[in-house]
Amino acid sequence: MMDNLEDAYSRLSLTEEEAKEVVFEEGTPSEQAEEIALSLVSKLMTAGRFNARVMKNVLKNLWKPATGLLGRDMDSNLLVFQFFSPANRKFVLNEGPWAPSEFEFSTAHFWVEAYDVLGARQTKAFAEFLGSHVGTFVDCEDEQMFGADKAICFRADIDVWKPLRHGASVKMKDKTIWVRIKYVKVPTFCYGCGKLGHVLNSCNIVAKSELDLQYGAWLGASPLKTRRRNVEAKMEDEKRLFLALWGKGGNCAKQKQPICKAHDQSTSRG
């Protein structure tokens, strides 16, 4: 069929207008590179069907990019979003886990909160250690937040095909401690097998009737904004308490210090 069409076209006598070459102005490599740099490929982690058009509208309303956003279907469960501002793209990427780091979609960025971490261990080095144990360390919260409570928050690239981790057993010099972890904005996951993308009702690994479920809603952490707000409020309360006790006009500041007088025992009379 194709050969017949090619033969037919080869015998056509083109008009002057048809024979005239039309020049297509392709974008420069730099422009194309800029478009790619401002794009994100997303995958919906679900075994069920979904409406791509509705999903694109939902995400647009959720992200609210100031400079606009274009979305198009790429493949099954894949969507491509074109941003027009590096800041908008960075916001969406940083607020993951809707931004897997590879096209294989084997990993995704998660903000992770590690609990029962006492003050001496609340350092960036310990956050990097935990991040590399859970997945691949990416970043951590502002170090000024360390020490405000018994948790530290870091960002890690985590394998999305493995069950969520409950925590990490860390061997210290004098003892072994168990560090509980929670995930910020964790997507839908199974309370039976701990994997993302499905719920217990559709799990083919753990039976729905299983009573001793190893996973649950407790693996989800509060949004980062809530954590920051709570920590900042606690730090402000501690600051006010400190000023009340030791600052100008505080009760403790008004207490007179005892005065010690030295005596020359050699000249004292018996």
From TrEMBL:
GO MF annotations, alphabetized: nucleic acid binding; zinc ion binding
Positions of the CCHC-type domain: 190-203
Entries under Pfam families matching the protein: zf-CCHC_4
Domain of life of the source: Eukaryota
Keyword Zinc included in the entry's annotation: yes
Source organism: Carnegiea gigantea
Keyword list, A-Z: Metal-binding, Zinc, Zinc-finger
Name of this protein: CCHC-type domain-containing protein
